[in-house]
Design a protein that fits this description.
The structure holds two protein chains of two kinds.
Chain A: H1 2-15, H2 17-45, E1 57-67, E2 70-74, E3 76-78, H3 81-88, E4 92-100, E5 106-110, E6 113-117, E7 120-123, H4 127-130, E8 135-138, E9 149-153, H5 154-161, E10 170-172, E11 177-184, E12 197-200, H6 201-205, H7 208-214, E13 220-228, H8 234-249, E14 254-260, H9 280-307, H10 309-321, H11 326-363, H12 374-400, H13 404-409, H14 415-453, E15 462-466, H15 478-493, E16 498-504, E17 515-516, E18 519-521, E19 531-536, H16 540-544, E20 549-552, E21 563-568, H17 569-574, E22 585-588, E23 591-599, E24 614-617, E25 624-629, H18 634-648, E26 657-658, H19 659-666, H20 668-702, H21 704-712, H22 717-751, H23 762-789, H24 792-798
Helix pairs in contact in A: 1-11, 2-9, 2-11, 2-12, 2-20, 9-12, 9-14, 9-20, 10-12, 11-12, 14-20, 14-22, 14-23, 20-21, 20-23, 21-24, 22-23
Chain B: E1 2-13, E2 16-28, E3 33-37, H1 44-51, E4 59-64, E5 67-68, H2 74-84, E6 85-89, H3 100-109, H4 115-128, H5 144-156, E7 162-166, H6 174-191, E8 194-198, H7 202-205, E9 210-215, E10 218-219
Helix pairs in contact in B: 3-4, 3-5
The chains are: A alpha+beta, B alpha/beta.
Chain lengths: 799, 221
């Protein structure tokens, strides 16, 4: 029976070539998209769960109330917190700490050339016992015995030492010589800890000043993990931790909480983070999109199959007359949809293979397509099951329900009810497609708005170079530092390829530094200590970044007179500076001066965040060089900068960034989402158009006789095209009407992630509607015109 | 074998009730070869479909092999039908996607007969009808007469006690028609298969032992 079903199904599939191609192409594209998304979703959802006892591991999160209503949430804790917690709280079984070296990367000396090795971390002796790492060679046990030990991941070891075993080899840094103790397997994609170099914390504490600093409860620098005993309750431990840190830090409004390891990836609201996070909603939205795409492809199959049902009616009726029951017929059609899914999977595997590199690039992952991967087959099995069921059930029910006598007598009882069902599905499909078009336009519009709002300067021509703060002798040598920086600036300015140089304290693309306390002005309530961004920059900064003054005047390079501060408009407003703002007393740390000007608000942070109070002033303690390159001379300028670096700062490795790269990295997630939505939108449109194409082709086929007769009676090509397309165009129009309010809701909620956002204008809907109608019309015309142009005599004769 | 009592069949069109069959009382014994004749619209096909359990009357009772058909459960009736009734149509109604062999095999599939057994039965039938050489052809590759031969072979494959034929020669030329009729007579005489055929042709009707004349839904006495 099954064998015969398969045979019959294959023949049917092969006989209707056009329909089959449409079905398989649509289904496999839908499947590919769904599988890729599920790959990604599964990966995101499984973050950090692979560690043994992941459900008992928590990270300490600290909440510092800096002013009423202003709380900073830090993922870091003081170094000594872990030891105190373990000593005083019995539920804590173990603790582990990590210091991310993101800001002070390890500097490697390779044959005299200094290079920064990013991706390093300092970890304490418990790190490898709390978290699961697979040792490939060497041993973890010896790692803690000496601060000069180091552990590398496999790919980092390969990069540094080639293919030979790295264990026992030594790695020279600028100050020490490390010995590789072990090589561990690369971090899984679903690990928050994407660190490739591990150094004992002891190595960091070898410096006496650092050790003194870190032994203070005021310095929050370490990711601190605790493993609770199986019986412990995290809420109670949180309370004990809060009590402990309050007692130790002598502060009453600080709070500690525990973030479960598996939840860490989905954290929001941290001030900054050493690990990667994602908004859980994003995952949900994309899962939904994946399912919708698969659904759209299934709709094509269902529509084409049921549209052709009348062609199958005779076969079904005969089978019934020769004894087939509904069950047997149902099975036959389910077999057909199963075979179709199976055939689509073959193409899906090819498509997966082709699209995976691009998908990895977009999502910044490194998935591989391994045919022995259980997850892959699970997902494929799921896709086959879903498509078989979605595709099969309705057509199978419909086809097996025919009454044979009606079919032979030519009564199309089912046509009316069934046609409504088909129309509904087309509307569902196009609503999704139109929704995605609207989404794409909104997202791109918002991204453009972000670019435009930050367009006061040419990001692609400004190079950012950071001079190490220790370069001229550190804090004790302020004078030396000042003249050193000046000399570098002069040398840079002398280069013909460099247009302008500015020195500032921090970068300007996403400046996350905040200070609270240490500020004062007339009229400030005693307990009002808002977070303010301090920003020291030279006078060139204004010109280079096109910063506008609202009133007053810019400070000058002359530092001898009274200190001049510039506040942005938000600061004037939020700090309630007395009017007139100009000339008011203002204090930053030890410096008292006056407000000399008010700057128009500009974006110095991501546009997800509101512009916050900023104070600018001129203080030579700053190390970031912003070098504006003459147009078209990037290569020459970079060579010059590197030469000057080597001449002045040979002890330090040279690194540079273009501002547009920094800018794009701030919006990496947004760019990723916009690319994915664009691709999904394209796929959705393609699948919908494919379905429409199939349906029109079928309608045209069914109406060949009618068209022939109408043409003989004098209908024009235009009349015929209208006849064939009117209904579909109406359906697409209905879809547009359904999609608009839904898309408006979804996109508004996405835009609300931004402090600065566009408004969704009518033109967006108009554009989306026009686009959808255009695509539908083009697709339909492809068939309709062909049918309309056919010679009626020929068609009527063959009937 | 077949007892029809007070069979009425009507359709409502607006306020008018149109009778297709009126008060049909008919007994057909096992082994009979009956021809049903009458002009178009006299209710021949309706009667055949009711006997073949493809259609139901509006009123009346029907006993088949001693079973009260309309009091049976759907499943049992379907079983009774599958095992005892074979159909031959004027338009052959072969499945275009299946070969001759597969078309003939189809009824056996729905009776859950084992693959090896099916092969033997179908091979026998192909042999008997002299169409072994055509077994891998599709219906569209056959002439009308050959298609009807396949249609008959398919109707007979499950060894039904009753063969129902709705104008089996209507689409055939007279020579092909004669061959089919000869086949029917042979079946009736040698295997004792009960045959009821609907026909327009006096000549074909003569093959039957009894002729029932229908006019406006009534049996003419």
């Amino acid at each position: 029976m099954i064998k015969t079903d398969i045979k019959t199904s294959l023949r049917t599939i092969l006989k209707q070539k056009k329909t089959t191609i449409i079905n398989i192409v649509g289904l496999s594209i839908g499947m590919t998209a769904a599988i890729l998304i599920l790959f990604w979703v599964q990966n995101e959802k499984s973050y950090d769960r692979y560690h043994a006892d992941a459900d008992r591991i928590y990270r300490i999160t600290n909440h510092l109330t800096v002013s009423s209503g202003d709380t900073w949430v830090w993922e870091n804790s003081p170094l000594i917190y872990a030891d105190a917690a373990k000593r005083e709280i019995p539920e804590i079984e173990n603790t582990a700490r990590l210091y991310s070296a993101a800001w002070n990367p390890l500097i490697i000396n390779r044959n005299g050339t200094l290079m920064k090795e990013h991706g390093g971390a300092y970890v304490d002796s418990n790190w490898f016992s709390m978290f699961s790492y697979k040792v490939l060679s060497g041993s973890l046990a010896s790692f803690n015995r000496h601060p000069n030990n180091i552990i590398l991941t496999e790919s980092r070891a390969k990069k540094l030492f080639g293919n030979s075993d790295a264990v026992g080899k030594s790695l020279l840094s600028d100050t020490m010589s490390y010995t590789v103790q072990a090589v561990v397997a690369d971090n899984p994609t679903n690990s928050s800890f994407q660190f490739d170099i591990f150094i004992p914390i002891e190595a960091r504490l070898a410096d006496k000043d650092t050790r003194n600093d870190e032994n203070d409860w005021g310095n929050f620098n370490y990711l601190t993990f605790v493993k609770l005993r199986p019986t412990a309750k995290s809420k109670q431990t949180e309370a004990k931790l809060t009590a402990l840190i309050r007692k130790s830090k002598l502060e009453s409004d600080i709070k500690s909480s525990l973030t479960a390891l598996p939840d860490m990836h989905f954290e929001t609201g941290l001030q900054s983070s050493a690990t990667r996070h994602i908004n859980e909603n994003t995952i949900h939205v994309f899962s939904l999109l994946g399912i919708l795409l698969l659904l759209m492809a299934c709709i094509n199959y269902v529509n084409l199959t049921t549209a052709r049902a009348s062609l199958r009616a005779k076969e079904v009726s005969i089978r019934k007359i020769v004894g087939a029951g509904r069950k047997e017929l149902f099975l036959q059609f389910i077999t057909e949809s199963f075979l179709m899914s199976l055939l689509s999977v073959v193409l899906t595997l090819v498509l997966l293979r082709l699209s995976l590199p691009m998908f990895n690039k977009i999502t910044d992952n490194h998935f591989i397509l391994a045919l022995n991967d259980i997850l892959l087959w699970k997902l494929i099995g799921l896709a086959i099951l879903a498509t078989t069921v979605l595709n099969g059930i309705y057509p199978a029910l419909l086809l097996s329900s025919f009454n044979p006598l009606h079919v032979f007598r030519g009564i199309g009882l089912l046509r009316i009810r069934d046609a409504y069902f088909r129309k509904t599905l087309v509307v569902v499909q196009f609503s999704i497609a139109v929704g995605l078009i609207i989404g794409t336009i909104v997202i791109f519009n918002q991204m453009q708005y972000i670019q435009r709002s930050n367009s006061g300067y040419n990001k692609s021509q400004i190079v950012n170079v950071i001079v190490p703060w220790k370069a001229f002798g550190g804090y004790e040598a302020a004078e030396k530092q000042k003249s050193g920086m000046n000399s570098i600036v002069q040398q840079l300015k002398a280069e013909s390829s460099i247009a302008e140089v500015s020195v500032a304290q921090d970068n300007m693309v996403n400046n996350l530094s905040l200070s609270s306390g240490g500020f004062d002005w007339d009229g400030r309530p005693e307990d009002f200590k808002p977070s303010i961004t301090r920003f020291s920059a030279d006078t060139n900064f204004r010109k280079m970044f096109n910063i506008q003054l609202a009133e007053g005047e810019w400070y000058t390079e002359d530092l001898s007179s009274v200190k001049k501060f510039l506040l942005n408009e938000t600061a004037v407003k939020e700090l309630n500076i007395r009017k007139p703002a100009l000339g008011q007393r203002f204090v930053v740390g030890k410096d008292t001066g006056i407000i000399s000007g008010v700057i128009k608000d500009f974006h110095f942070k991501s546009m997800h965040d509101k512009i916050s109070p900023l104070v600018m002033y001129n203080d030579p303690w700053r190390f970031q060089l912003f070098i504006q390159v003459q147009p078209g001379q990037n290569a020459k300028a970079l060579a010059a900068i590197e030469k000057i670096w080597k001449a002045n700062l040979s002890k330090f490795p040279f690194e540079y960034w273009f501002l547009d790269e920094m800018f794009n990295s701030v919006y990496a997630t947004d760019n990723r989402i916009s690319t994915l939505v664009l691709i999904f939108c394209g796929i959705a449109l393609f699948i919908s158009a494919l379905g429409l194409f199939g349906l029109t082709a079928f309608t045209a086929e069914r109406k060949t006789r009618e068209i022939g007769i109408r043409k003989v009676l004098g209908a024009s090509v235009f009349n015929i095209v209208t006849l064939l397309s009117r209904e579909f165009i109406l359906l697409v129009t209905l879809s547009i009407l359904i999609a608009i309010p839904l898309a408006l809701m979804m996109m508004n909620s996405w835009l609300n992630n931004f402090a600065y956002r566009i408004n969704i204008g009518i033109w967006i809907f108009a554009l989306a509607a026009a686009l959808a109608l255009l695509i539908a019309l083009a697709t339909i015309s492809l068939q309709a015109v062909k049918a309309a142009l056919a010679n009626p005599v020929k068609n009527l004769r063959t009937e | 074998m077949i007892q029809l009592e007070k069979i009425f069949k009507w359709v409502n069109a607006g306020n008018n009730r149109t009778f297709l069959l009126k008060d049909i009382n008919l007994t057909i014994n096992e082994g009979e070869f009956v021809s049903v004749m009458g002009p178009s619209g006299s209710g021949k096909s309706t009667l055949l479909n009711i006997i073949g359990m493809l259609d139901e009357p509006s009123e009346g009772s029907y006993h088949f092999l001693g079973n009260d058909v309309y009091k049976m459960k759907e499943k049992q009736r379907s079983q009774l039908y599958k095992e005892n009734i074979g159909f031959v149509f004027q338009a052959y109604h072969l499945i275009d996607e299946l070969t001759v062999y597969e078309n003939i095999e189809t009824p056996l599939l729905y009776q859950n007969i084992k693959s090896s057994e099916r092969q033997a039965i179908v091979a026998d039938m192909l042999d008997r009808f002299n169409i072994v050489g055509k077994k891998d052809l599709f219906p569209s590759q056959l002439s009308g007469g050959q298609q009807q031969l396949v249609g008959v072979a398919r109707a007979l494959i499950a060894k039904p006690k009753l063969l129902l034929a709705d104008e089996p020669t209507g689409n055939l030329n007279s020579k092909q028609g004669e061959e089919i009729m000869e086949l029917f007579r042979q079946l009736n005489q040698e295997s004792g298969t009960t045959i009821i055929q609907v026909t327009h042709s006096e000549k074909n009707a003569e093959y039957g032992q009894r002729i029932i004349h229908l006019l406006d839904g009534r049996i003419e006495k």
